[in-house]
Each structure stands twice: as structure tokens, then as C-alpha cells.
């Protein structure tokens, strides 16, 4: 459940224009009768670079080059930030439970999440977003342009009013997004250039399977990086809706995979194709189902012919033997 909620928060506020690079933090606080647990996951673009948890009380770099090239002092600073936000979000949790208890009850578990990111664009411009969610539902976001916290649920109006009334609160969030976050991202990109900007072309397999009396088409795209990819089934130039949710999954080696499935009529097999768009290749790559293996048909025909010839030979031999008698 936590994985799904984390994914939901990551998608709360999409970027309006494509970013050259993004530093993204996902904060999660879980509170129940057994206590609280807190963790933070950090990404540069699609690469997970570090994590913090209430169990370890420290930030851990997850990439070898980060452990080797960045000074220990940097990780001590990041650990201080992790502890700071753990304390802040723990205080927020109690405040939110009082406001949301009519919606979610007072027994828990309660999950508070913050999605925070800064983005540097191709033209050098800086943007970012910050969204807040409770038990998987977004309730407020930070409008950096207008320097205000904006509620998206009625229950959050009091929370936004309180936060907007706190002196320097909006300024602190804006500076953290435009200054601290951007400086950290520049540091990671400087030491990790080439590793963070790598592109791996996807491998694509298209095949069909019979299931419950129907033919299902499968387009499996795997081994690609970065994560963003567009995969779709097209029939005679028209995109077809897949009956299954298209979820991009991580591979152990840091690449990604996705598979989309479509039910079709067997007679129309030649009219379907899988279209794949990825930044590692130029233009849309189109993949059709492989031609049926005709060797099997040849073997069957040959076997039938041999059996037929043998049968004729047996009949002829029997007739000749009968005439001799």
C-alpha cells in the first residue's frame, strides 16, 4: 500500500514544461497504534540517489560514485535536514489528525506525505512544486508564484489559513526550492555527469497468447533508461485502449520495463502494431507481430504426403498380390 501511495504523491503536481533536470524528494510519515515511522527517498531525474529513515537516523547515498566522490560533510548536512523534516512533519501530523478525523476517523493508521521537487530547464529557468497528501489524498499545494499554500479539499482550508498566516513560512519554502535544492542538484550533476545522463535503448518483444478463448497481444518493453516512455497498441493508424493498467516497473540494474496487453480478433492480427517512443531513439519505433513459423506447416504437409504415399503403396501391393492368386 505504501508503494502505491508514494507513487500517487509523486504524480500530484506534474511539471508544466519539460525540465532538463529534476531533484525530487518524497517524504512519508506513517503513524499507527504501534508508533511512527518516517522515511525520505531522493531522486535526480529517474535515478534514486539516497534515503533517510527514522530507524537509521541518517542519510545513506545509494550510488557508489556518490559514496566515493562526495565529502562526508555533505551527508552530515543532509542528515541534519532529514532530522529537521522528521520533527516538522511529526508536528504537522498531530495538527492534521485533528482536522481530518471526521473524514478518516481517529484510529489510524495515518499516512502523511510531501512531494517536493526543484526543476532546472533548458533555458536556465528554475521552477518546482510541493504537494501535500493525507492517507493518499492530496489536500494542499504550495503556489510558489503567489507565495501561498492553496487548499484543494474543504478540510484543508483551516490548515492553509494557518500556514499562510505564519511569518516567513512561504519565503522559507520558496528559498528552499529555488536555492538549496538547485545547489544540491548542481553538485550531484557535476560529480555524476554521464552516469545520471545515460540513455539506454529499450528492447522490445511483441507476441500473442491464447487465453480464455481469446487472443491477447503483448508488447513487452524492457531494459530502457531514463524512465519516461510511451508504449501503445495501434490498429490501422488508430490507438487502441489496453484493458490493463500500464505501469512502469524498475529492474535490478537501474533500468525499467513495461508491458501492455490487448485483446484482439484473430483475423485482424496483421492490422496491429506496437509503437514505442523513448528518448534514446529518434522517432517512433514500430513493432509488428512476427510472421507465423511456416516450417511447421511444411513438416505437417510432408508427413501427410508420406503417409498418403505409403497407403497407396500398400493398396497397390495388395491388388497385385490378389491378381497373382
UniProtKB/TrEMBL annotation:
<keyword id="KW-1133">Transmembrane helix</keyword>
<dbReference type="InterPro" id="IPR003006">
    <property type="entry name" value="Ig/MHC_CS"/>
</dbReference>
<dbReference type="InterPro" id="IPR037055">
    <property type="entry name" value="MHC_I-like_Ag-recog_sf"/>
</dbReference>
<dbReference type="InterPro" id="IPR001039">
    <property type="entry name" value="MHC_I_a_a1/a2"/>
</dbReference>
<dbReference type="InterPro" id="IPR050208">
    <property type="entry name" value="MHC_class-I_related"/>
</dbReference>
<dbReference type="Pfam" id="PF00129">
    <property type="entry name" value="MHC_I"/>
</dbReference>
<keyword id="KW-1015">Disulfide bond</keyword>
<feature type="domain" description="Ig-like">
    <location>
        <begin position="202"/>
        <end position="290"/>
    </location>
</feature>
<dbReference type="InterPro" id="IPR013783">
    <property type="entry name" value="Ig-like_fold"/>
</dbReference>
<keyword id="KW-0732">Signal</keyword>
<dbReference type="Pfam" id="PF07654">
    <property type="entry name" value="C1-set"/>
</dbReference>
<keyword id="KW-1003">Cell membrane</keyword>
<feature type="transmembrane region" description="Helical">
    <location>
        <begin position="298"/>
        <end position="320"/>
    </location>
</feature>
<dbReference type="GO" id="GO:0006955">
    <property type="term" value="P:immune response"/>
</dbReference>
<dbReference type="InterPro" id="IPR007110">
    <property type="entry name" value="Ig-like_dom"/>
</dbReference>
<dbReference type="InterPro" id="IPR011161">
    <property type="entry name" value="MHC_I-like_Ag-recog"/>
</dbReference>
<dbReference type="InterPro" id="IPR036179">
    <property type="entry name" value="Ig-like_dom_sf"/>
</dbReference>
<keyword id="KW-0472">Membrane</keyword>
<dbReference type="GO" id="GO:0005615">
    <property type="term" value="C:extracellular space"/>
</dbReference>
<comment type="similarity">
    <text>Belongs to the MHC class I family.</text>
</comment>
<dbReference type="GO" id="GO:0009897">
    <property type="term" value="C:external side of plasma membrane"/>
</dbReference>
<keyword id="KW-0325">Glycoprotein</keyword>
<protein>
    <submittedName>
        <fullName>Major histocompatibility complex class I antigen precursor</fullName>
    </submittedName>
</protein>
<keyword id="KW-0812">Transmembrane</keyword>
<dbReference type="InterPro" id="IPR003597">
    <property type="entry name" value="Ig_C1-set"/>
</dbReference>
<dbReference type="InterPro" id="IPR011162">
    <property type="entry name" value="MHC_I/II-like_Ag-recog"/>
</dbReference>
<feature type="signal peptide">
    <location>
        <begin position="1"/>
        <end position="18"/>
    </location>
</feature>
Amino acid at each position: 500500500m505504501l508503494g502505491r501511495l508514494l507513487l500517487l504523491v509523486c504524480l500530484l503536481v506534474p511539471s508544466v514544461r519539460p525540465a532538463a533536470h529534476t531533484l525530487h524528494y518524497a517524504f512519508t510519515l506513517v503513524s499507527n497504534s504501534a508508533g511512527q515511522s518516517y522515511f525520505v527517498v531522493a531522486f535526480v531525474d529517474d535515478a534514486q540517489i539516497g534515503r533517510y529513515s527514522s530507524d537509521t537516523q541518517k542519510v545513506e547515498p545509494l550510488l557508489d560514485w556518490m559514496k566515493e566522490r562526495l565529502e562526508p560533510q555533505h551527508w552530515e548536512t543532509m542528515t541534519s535536514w532529514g532530522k529537521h523534516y522528521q520533527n516538522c512533519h511529526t508536528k504537522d501530523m498531530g495538527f492534521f489528525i485533528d482536522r481530518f478525523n471526521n473524514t478518516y476517523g481517529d484510529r489510524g493508521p495515518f499516512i502523511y506525505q510531501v512531494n517536493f521537487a526543484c526543476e532546472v530547464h533548458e533555458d536556465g529557468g528554475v521552477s518546482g512544486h510541493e504537494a501535500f497528501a493525507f492517507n493518499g489524498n492530496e489536500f494542499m499545494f504550495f503556489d510558489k508564484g503567489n507565495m501561498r499554500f492553496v487548499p484543494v479539499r474543504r478540510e484543508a482550508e483551516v490548515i492553509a489559513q494557518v500556514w499562510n498566516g505564519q511569518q516567513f513560512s512561504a519565503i522559507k519554502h520558496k528559498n528552499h526550492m529555488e536555492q538549496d535544492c538547485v545547489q544540491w542538484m548542481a553538485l550531484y550533476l557535476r560529480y555524476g555527469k554521464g552516469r545520471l545522463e545515460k540513455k539506454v535503448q529499450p528492447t522490445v518483444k511483441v507476441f500473442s497468447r491464447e487465453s480464455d478463448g481469446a487472443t491477447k497481444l503483448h508488447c513487452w518493453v524492457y531494459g530502457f533508461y531514463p524512465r519516461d516512455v510511451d508504449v501503445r497498441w495501434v490498429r490501422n493508424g488508430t490507438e487502441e485502449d489496453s484493458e490493463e493498467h500500464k505501469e512502469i516497473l524498475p529492474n535490478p540494474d537501474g533500468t525499467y520495463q513495461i508491458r501492455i496487453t490487448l485483446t484482439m480478433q484473430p483475423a485482424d492480427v496483421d492490422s496491429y502494431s506496437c509503437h514505442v517512443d523513448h528518448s534514446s531513439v529518434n522517432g517512433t519505433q514500430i513493432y509488428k507481430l512476427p510472421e507465423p513459423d511456416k516450417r511447421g506447416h511444411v513438416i505437417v504437409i510432408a508427413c501427410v504426403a508420406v503417409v498418403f504415399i505409403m497407403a497407396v503403396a500398400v493398396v497397390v501391393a495388395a491388388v497385385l498380390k490378389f491378381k497373382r492368386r
